[in-house]
Design a protein that fits this description.
The protein is mainly alpha-helical.
Amino acid sequence: MMRMLTLLTATLLFNQIANAQLDAGRLLDAGKKKMAAMLISDEEIIQLTTQQVIKMDSASKVAPSNSPYFVRLNKLFAKHKNYDGMALNYKVYLVDEVNAFACADGSIRVFKGLMDKFTDNEILSVIGHEIGHVKNKDTKDAIKKAYNTSAAKDVVASTNKSVATIADSQFGAIGEAVFNTKFSRQQESEADVYGYEFLKINKYPVMAMVNAFNKLASLNGGTSQKGFESILASHPDSKKRADAILEKAKADGLDKIPAEPIKATKVKKKAPVKKKI
């Protein structure tokens, strides 16, 4: 009996040591990830982002180069592929959702749903806003935050096996989560200002941005594509933003310039009256 108890005690002790070593190993891994989050360079962030964009492109229906959507976007944006020290690339996702996003590596993706509802200059205003997030390093900060969040979950997971499974799957989905990040109000405001300046510097009518935000404010809900956060959800104060941009336009004396070119109307010539002989 004593021998059986001793054997049982030894077995329990062995299991405790083994579990402790496993937990210590997980804590060490979590610590490494935390350190990696602090030390990750801009170049590494861009590499990670590019890998995720490639995956997203391969999993999405991308408009081919002969598509009317790509032809239109190329006509609008090709001249800005190298802008403000950034190398930018662009594609259209054939998704019926009002959305667009830009990533840390300069990848810009515009959705078919947005192009269906927005004018050319309104599309440029949305792209200008998204480029602002790249220039201001908001997207890079989002990746660092995702790494830190993952590391924190792994610390909890080291003492809870049920959480461990979730943590492992969450860490594998960091890249996808980055593209669903909701930026802070200040980050959105700064990106709005950048988008406004983008229009102004390039001689596009800034009132197009006012119209774009008002249009977003008037749209109700819309369907959300799996894996993407709707621009309607991530821009809840569109009307206030439209008002803020309008004030800037008034201050710059640009509020009277039409948002879109005024199309000349053809005057029908009256048929000559035949004189009776």
